[in-house]
Amino acid sequence: MKKLKFEDIEFNVTEEVFDYPPTYEEPGKLHEPNTYRYALSVLKTFNDNDVFIDIGGCFGLFSLMIQKGKAITFEPSPENAAILARNIMLNPEKNIKLMPFALADKSEINYYIKRHTLPGMTKTMFGDG
Hints:
Helix content: 10-25%
Strand content: 25-35%
Strand order of the largest sheet: 5-6-7
Low-confidence stretches: none
Number of strands: 9
Mean pLDDT: 84
Order of helices and strands: EEEEHEHEHEEE
């Protein structure tokens, strides 16, 4: 377990999170920091009854930034969902529910997971891809 700090928020993550680009460009530096800043600015406005829907949650970093309310995090990749589940367990004070499947606008759409050697770069492909 390691602490991850981004701006003024800190939470626990598994060691695995630090091993996979594109999560980190270098140790301690998040990839796409402006995206994380924007998400954090939105999540800081949440009240206790608000719900954050994190689609394609990967390791759950956006959901782990939640300070109030609840996060429902969808992640279809079994590898990523396993890391995400461990991150949720390391932060029991957070109200995060893991949904280990993909979302689409139609129920009859098939999907497959295009695996990558780095779990953080796995893609979910719908239909024929």
